[in-house]
Specification:
Distance between the termini: 28 Å
Strand order of the largest sheet: 2-1-3-4-8
Strand content: 15-25%
Largest sheet: 5 strands, parallel
Helix content: 25-40%
Shape: globular
Length: about 220
């Protein structure tokens, strides 16, 4: 994860209402990752007086040993929903990064009364009834053939040393291909912020796969 993700989220304190008082953030990490990826972000937000929760999704991060073939997108949505409900959180600023965009969409659709704002941080923004694979404009059958899949999980090919921690771990394939059924109408009633970052020396925004969602948002809203 690039350092600017940390810096970007810290700047949200001012832009997303943190300057008006204490806010509660629930940050959902991306594929192959874990809550550890946003540890520094949480520390900086907490130092500024904010409340931060970083649930790790089942089968990932320090919970990778809990993986079973039944773990899917619904499982991950329930992970976050239960964090909010059992911690009795209200007025939540719900942040999703990358694959986490799928999760926060499902969470906000499930318990909209608990959510103050949704933030898509370089995240997937699904359409109604779409899976992550479909949202990214990929063909499911070809995608599965092109991925390194072992035991129902997608292996992160870039991880060479599997003894080092923290590290990216294999991600449940089912969560990539399970469609997300939600109400766009219900979601549209919540404030939504899209944060998109890119590196100009690597081809600019057009080279970023996440840019497709920003382009779609501009087309739909005219902004």
């Amino acid at each position: 994860m690039r350092l600017k993700y940390f810096l970007t989220l810290v700047l949200m304190i001012v832009t997303l209402g943190g300057a008006q008082g204490q806010s509660t953030y629930v940050i959902v990490h991306g594929a192959w990752g874990g809550a550890w990826q946003f540890k520094k972000t949480a520390q900086q937000l907490q130092a500024a007086g904010q409340v931060v929760y970083r649930p790790t999704l089942t089968g990932l991060g320090e919970r990778h040993h809990l993986y079973t073939e039944s773990v899917d997108l619904k499982t991950h949505i329930k992970d976050v929903v239960n964090t909010i409900l059992f911690e009795d959180l209200k007025e939540v600023i719900l942040v999703g990064h990358s694959y986490g965009g799928m999760v926060v969409t499902g969470v906000a659709d499930s318990i909209p009364e608990r959510i103050k704002k949704i933030v898509y941080l370089d995240a997937v923004v699904p359409g109604e009834g779409q899976s992550l694979v479909q949202s990214m404009g990929m063909d499911e059958s070809n995608t599965q053939r092109s991925l390194a899949i072992e035991g129902g999980r997608v292996v992160p090919a870039w991880v060479r040393d599997t003894t080092k921690t923290p590290r990216d771990v294999p991600h449940p394939l089912a969560s990539f291909i399970q469609p997300l059924n939600f109400s766009m109408d219900r979601l549209s009633k919540l404030p939504i912020t899209y944060v998109f970052t890119y590196e100009s020396d690597k081809g600019g925004k057009e080279k970023e796969r996440i840019y497709r969602f920003i382009r779609r948002q501009k087309k739909e809203t005219g902004k």
